[in-house]
Amino acid sequence: MKKGIIAAAAAIVFVSGIGVGYSAKPSPAPALYHGQAAQDAGRGLLGLALKQAEDGSWERIGVARVYYLGGLKAEGQAIFDQVLAGKHDDGDAYRIARVYREAGETEKANAMFERYLAANPDDARALSEVGAYALLEGNREKAERLFDRSFAAEHDDMWASLQAAGAYLGVAPQQ
After folding, report:
1. Which of 8, 86, 138, 167 has the greatest CB tally within 10 Å of its CB?
2. Which windows of the sequence hold TPR repeats (predicted)?
């Protein structure tokens, strides 16, 4: 009986500790955005999102994207630089290249895409996506070379086919 009471008490302490741990995670407070100027609300929520992202590179790139495209380029670039300076996979650089492209910085994006493709020469979807961007930029020869490589790497990838088709119709790949 005494062991049962001790076990129950331990379970209660353990469960209440988990509750405290969950409540300690940062969450949005209305004061961050209610009545705030749009820029201030955005900055406040981005700061929160960055804390919520913790060490996740995908998540941090997502936060940096909003900073970068939202006119706060220096803050976004600082996060990109932190992600790339640490241990990261090729996909992180690829996602950052997409942001640069979305920002209209095609030279910067293309350089990163080329490095990614050099390290991942059989990534059918990436080949097709980068080819689509080339076609949309007016470089049909490069685009079709990349489409050829994409379809040779994986001949039945619907998404690769869709990206190529969209580019011929002026539609950028969906990210």
Report:
1. 167
2. 90-123
Position 119, amino acid: A
* Distance in Å from the first CA to the final CA of the chain: 59
54 contact partners, CB below 8 Å, separation of at least 6: none
Single pTM value for the model: 0.81
CA nearest neighbour of 173 among 121, 138, 126, 140 = 126
Q: Which distant-in-sequence residues (6+ apart) come within 8 Å of 69 by Cβ?
A: 76, 99, 102, 103
Rounded distance between C-alpha atoms, residue 88 and residue 95, angstroms: 12
From residue 60, how far is each of 5, 8, 41, 65, 104 by CA, in Å? 45, 40, 19, 8, 21
Phi/psi for 128 (5° steps) reads: -65, -40
The Cα–Cα gap between 89 and 92 comes to 6
Q: Which two tokens stand for residue 22?
A: 């969950």
